[in-house]
Write a structure and sequence with these properties.
Layout (H helix, E strand, L loop, with lengths): L1 E6 L3 E8 L2 E4 L9 E2 L2 E3 L4 E4 L1 H9 L4 E2 L11 E4 L2 E4 H20 L5 E6 L5 H13 L3 E7 H8 L9 E8 L4 E9 L2 E10 L4 H15 L4 H7 L1 H20 L2 E5 L13 E5 H7 L1 H5 L2 H11 L8 E5 L6 H11 L12 H14 L5 E4 L8 E9 L2 E11 L7 E8 L8 E7 L9 E8 L10 E8 L5 E7 L5 E6 L8 H12 L2 E2 L2 H19 L2 H20 L2 H18 L5
The protein binds adenosine monophosphate.
Amino acid sequence: MIVGIDLGTTNSLVAWLTPNGPELIPNSLGEYLTPSAVGIDRDGQLLVGRAAKELQVVAPERCATVFKRLMGTDRKVSVADKTFRAEELSSLVLKSLKADAEKHIGQEVTEAVITVPAYFSDLQRKATIHAGQLAGFNVRRIINEPTAAAIAYGLHELQKERVALVFDLGGGTFDVSILDQFESTLEIKASAGEIFLGGEDFTRTLASQILAAKGMNFEHTETRHPQLVSRLIHECEKAKRRLTTGEDASVKFPDTDGLVSESSESVTVSRTDFLRWTESLLAKTRLPLQRAMSDAGLTRAQIEDVILVGGATRMPQIAAMLKEIFGREPLCQLDPDHVVALGAAIQGGLVHLDSAVTEMVVTDICPFTLGVEVSKDIAGTNRGGYFSPLISRNTTIPVSRMETFCTTTANQSTVKIRVFQGEGRRIDDNLFLAEFELKGIPRGPAGQVITIRFTYDLNGVLEVEAAADGSGSKASCVITHHAQNLSPEELKRAIEKLQELKVDPAEDQVNRHVLKWADRVYRELSGDARRMLEMLITGFEEALALQDPSAIENHRTTLEQFLESVDPSIE
Ligand code: AMP
């Protein structure tokens, strides 16, 4: 049996091809979206998905998320007292999806088609295959997310040549790809994007405007009252979703401990306000759109279909903007969160019939962002550890980019140039590539100009040159490879290591998730509600200790119903 998997940065999904067409497979909690999160509980038990996300709220050091961004790098991620590579963490998510699929289908699932972003390099694709192998899959194909979306809409079945544009706005990233369909081959002609643009930016803008109306600055408040800001973002996320269908939405303003209650002040936001505040974010998607079209050598009129992918494309202003640009309604009959997994399932079915859709990709792009470490002046103090990109992910290569930087202290005669790869704002979240020193900077006040040039060629070789203006001093380094893939021995060892992790049977995972959920909500409640919750948790723990299945079921249902009625993060 073969399944299609959308291995996402925030959520992953699994689907299979049934005689009635592609269908999504629910996880043990009955949900289609499994958060791409891995956690290890205090008793060493492995948690994947929602339970790991709940654990992250109370014990972030025991959880890992967004590891897809590290695929194909040597970066290790700590989870509790263990360390993992990104492909190992991804394999745990895949393994959990495999178990869900086997339970749903009722037979062993041994093969998979897994999707990756169009900009993934060969190394990142290999790392994805390894993740699949670690999970016990024979990975039959790796396909591009936009291609999968196009397949879900049946583009591969059309008889005549057709050009489609896939507009993918997720939680934190934006990608646009142009696909050409001819003779059941799908070719990605161009892809472009913005690494720091997604639905989360819309939510943060809403939060920042609400704070501004109270005379509060977002960054300052976040430093002084992180709990208030994180809860406000949570409330704004709910409001943003309501504004997708409604004309206005109210946002409860949390206290400095991040708590909201019946008596909390409520701020009403209209859709018009929201549109005005987020206009510039929307405008940011236009540049990659234009770039992809010009890279593909196409005009707007030649784009025949526009396909929406990613949860944030549910915001009506996205479809409205695309309609204005392309003069046609985008395709949105399929849920934008499901479309990639559904396409992967169809490709899986076709692989089995030996008639898989052929894919072609133009790969002359730099698959990740490259830059240097810089320091920033934050409220009068100089803080290091920030990442300043020189070459953005998705840039067509070969490319050469230059930027100027300044010294930060008086009479500074040397500067250490540290080169990183990755998509994080801070260097800690990115992969360290190399460092070298530039000496002989003319002495003087802080602010002496240094020029750095990055040159990236078609073989993936990066040359970094630094020069101090007005002195003739120069230094450079050449970086030829970015990361090592796992060797067969390493793969074998990784499989053994992963097998040592304690994994619950599916039913226990549901229990664990409810306990984690209860733990988090407990912190948010007070008074009678908290006492009531304490009682219900104790009852459930007793039932679990006695291992009485019907008592477990009864207590769990009561506890779940109570949590649903009191959890402040549920509508
Ligand atoms: P994805 O990574 O594709 O799951 O996208 C997640 C993003 O979609 C998040 O930023 C969500 O806030 C956003 N999103 C999900 N549902 C909606 C909705 N109904 N309206 C607006 N944004 C949404």
